[in-house]
């Protein structure tokens, strides 16, 4: 097993047969010295909340790119985000972010999400065929995160490609030299832009999340300038890349299971369960990485201290040891507390509630306002060449 096994055309098109092999091969599958994969639900579910597992982001990058990775702007920027940190620093940063990203703030976005969804559907009506990725799935969460940050949607669109390049840095397989250079420039461009936004908010505070981060205080401490910049960039990137891919994957899954699609059309009250099931069946974020800070016993095996483990969330969500008929989409499936789509433990996705709200609104309105909507390129989908964030380039639909 090697890194490139996760960047083959077959893997990009359908990683689930590969995952079945990983689960069958054992609790841990060696990838390189002290680096391994796991795809079993029981293993990942046990390790994610274990405080003996943590983040060593830069060493995991160096293992793939070499020592020069430490000097690359894209990796430096990501290392400064709370996503890559451990307690107590992570605890402080997450507490500050949660003050600005709480349930009340998210619920206030419901009306915005509904209005944005309706506006995008209005723009599509009257057309014979649309691309649901570029005309709906991407602009919907992008416009919402721009409202949350109070930046012009035009700027969000302008930096959309930069966000995609930054996401590529999370892939397990190393980027090419050219792709790395473009990702570095994207990180620098985003940093320059958001430093300007932060300067504006310091001069004229608003009610947006950037202003909240500037003003947020926990235990007498505030975020530093670099911490605000890096975490605002993280929110911008994660706020639309992940949700847009989840929406596209959900629409594909439903159209590949027409009986389930008709069931949802006939009973819109199932939308919450349908979104949860689609998020299990074909999630956007396919893997996360952790490092063992101590020897850990799991599933009868010892995970040695210092081991870097790539945890395949997409595999865990299809594990037959945990889910009945895991390769079948069932929108009536009872929600499971062990769904690993958004991770678990102290690094559980901060935006999970917002993402699920957006997905429920989007799916409900699409199916009720466009009852004749039908995907037309199901047999010719072009999956993005990423092994971490799964989604398609285009999703054509007849209205």
UniProtKB/TrEMBL annotation:
Keyword entries, A-Z? Heme, Iron, Metal-binding, Monooxygenase, Oxidoreductase
Q: Provide the GO MF annotations for this entry.
A: heme binding; iron ion binding; monooxygenase activity; oxidoreductase activity, acting on paired donors, with incorporation or reduction of molecular oxygen
InterPro entries, sorted: Cyt_P450 (IPR001128), Cyt_P450_B (IPR002397), Cyt_P450_CS (IPR017972), Cyt_P450_sf (IPR036396)
* Superkingdom as given in the UniProt entry: Bacteria
In the record, the note on similarity to other proteins reads: Belongs to the cytochrome P450 family.
PANTHER family the UniProt entry points to: CYTOCHROME P450 YJIB-RELATED (PTHR46696:SF1), P450, PUTATIVE (EUROFUNG)-RELATED (PTHR46696)
**What protein is this chain from?**
Putative cytochrome P450 hydroxylase
């Amino acid at each position: 097993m090697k890194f490139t096994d996760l960047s083959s055309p077959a893997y990009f098109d359908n990683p689930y047969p590969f995952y079945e092999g990983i689960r069958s091969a054992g609790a841990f599958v060696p990838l390189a010295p002290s680096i391994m994969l796991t795809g079993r639900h029981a293993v990942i579910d046990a390790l994610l909340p274990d405080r003996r597992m943590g983040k060593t982001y830069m060493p995991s990058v160096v293992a793939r790119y070499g020592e020069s990775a430490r000097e690359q702007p894209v990796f430096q920027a990501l290392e400064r985000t709370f996503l890559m940190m451990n307690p107590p620093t992570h605890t402080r940063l997450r507490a500050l972010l949660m003050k600005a990203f709480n349930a009340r703030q998210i619920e206030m976005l419901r009306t915005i999400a509904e209005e944005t969804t309706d506006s995008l559907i209005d723009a599509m009506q009257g057309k014979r065929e649309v691309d649901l990725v570029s005309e709906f799935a991407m602009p919907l969460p992008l416009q919402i995160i721009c409202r949350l940050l109070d930046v012009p949607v035009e700027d969000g669109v302008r930096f959309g490609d930069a966000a995609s390049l930054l996401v590529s840095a999370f892939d397990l397989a190393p980027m090419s030299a050219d792709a790395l250079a473009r990702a570095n420039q994207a990180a620098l461009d985003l940093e320059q832009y958001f430093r300007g936004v932060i300067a504006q908010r310091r001069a004229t505070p608003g009610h947006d999340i950037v202003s909240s981060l500037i003003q947020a205080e926990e235990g007498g401490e505030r975020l530093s300038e670099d911490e605000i910049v890096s975490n605002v960039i993280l929110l911008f990137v994660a706020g639309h890349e992940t949700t847009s891919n989840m929406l596209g994957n959900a629409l594909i899954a439903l159209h590949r299971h027409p009986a389930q699609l008709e069931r949802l059309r006939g009973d819109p009250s199932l939308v919450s369960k349908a979104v949860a099931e689609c998020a299990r069946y074909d999630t956007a974020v396919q893997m996360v990485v952790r490092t063992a800070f101590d020897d850990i016993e799991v599933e009868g095996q010892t995970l040695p201290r210092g081991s870097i483990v790539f945890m395949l969330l997409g595999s865990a969500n299809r594990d037959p040891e945990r889910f009945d008929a895991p390769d079948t989409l069932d929108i009536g499936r009872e929600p499971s507390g062990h769904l690993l789509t958004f991770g678990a433990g102290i690094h559980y996705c901060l935006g999970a509630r917002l993402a699920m709200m957006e997905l429920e609104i989007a799916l409900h309105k699409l199916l009720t306002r466009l009852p004749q909507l039908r995907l037309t390129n199901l047999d010719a989908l072009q999956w993005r060449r990423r092994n971490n964030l799964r989604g398609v380039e285009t999703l054509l639909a007849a209205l």
